[in-house]
Amino acid sequence: MKSFNPSGASAFELYSFSGIVEESGKNLETRVSGGGGGGATYQGTGGTAPISITSKTVIHDQLFLTSKEGKEKSFQLQDFNLACRKGNEVTVYWGIKQGKENGHYLAVKNHTTDQAFFDDGKINSMFLNLWIQAVLILGGIGMFFTIPYLGYIVGVGIFFYAWKRWKTAKNEVASFRQTLRNLPPGLTH
After folding, report:
1. Do 126 and 6 touch, CB atoms closer than 8 A?
2. Which helix (H) or strand (E) holds 130?
3. Second label for 11, Cα 20 to 30 Å away, from 45, 73, 101, 169?
4. Contact in structure between 88 and 112 (CB atoms under 8 Å)
5. Residue in 129, 110, 116 with CA at minimum distance from that of residue 172
6. Integer Cα distance of 109 and 58 in angstroms
7. Kind and range of the H or E element at 170?
8. How far is the C-alpha of 49 from the C-alpha of 134, rounded, in Å?
9. pTM metric for this prediction
10. What is the block-wise mean pLDDT of the chain (189 residues), using blocks of 10 residues?
11. Interhelix angle for 120-127 vs 150-182, to 10°?
12. CA-CA distances (angstroms) from residue 57 to 24, 33, 60, 79?
């Protein structure tokens, strides 16, 4: 277990499980949604709304790992698109925020092929609270447009603060990713 204390979000603990791949599987799920269409006519004139259809493919990876101590654990991961096979040495990393019981899978490292796979969305959410960013930006806009002169200064100051928070979080994420790339198997147990 390793602790991280991001400047823009709650502290979290990084956990891991390392082992040899006993079996792996991959499934693809396509989610299709649509909307729109329909229309109306009135006295011989009318129109229709266009139909929009979108699809998203979700990649499901399943791993069965056995540690050096003989403990076996299974992992069901989404959207990592892992490249691993039986016999590869792999570490799965997950983070749990302070005060929480559950967390998210953040990364998988295949030590045999020296490849790292990340869930960028989950990692970013561990380092920057987006609600606070949204409130800061909306507050900056509100100040800028509602209070003449002083609001311009305060609004720009709030925007600058939000930008610094975002930039700091971006640097912390880059450092975190590099740390995970360099960790040997089993270091964070």
Report:
1. yes
2. helix 130-146
3. 73
4. yes
5. 129
6. 20
7. helix 150-182
8. 33
9. 0.78
10. 84 94 93 84 81 90 95 95 95 94 95 94 87 78 80 81 86 91 72
11. 120
12. 19, 12, 10, 9
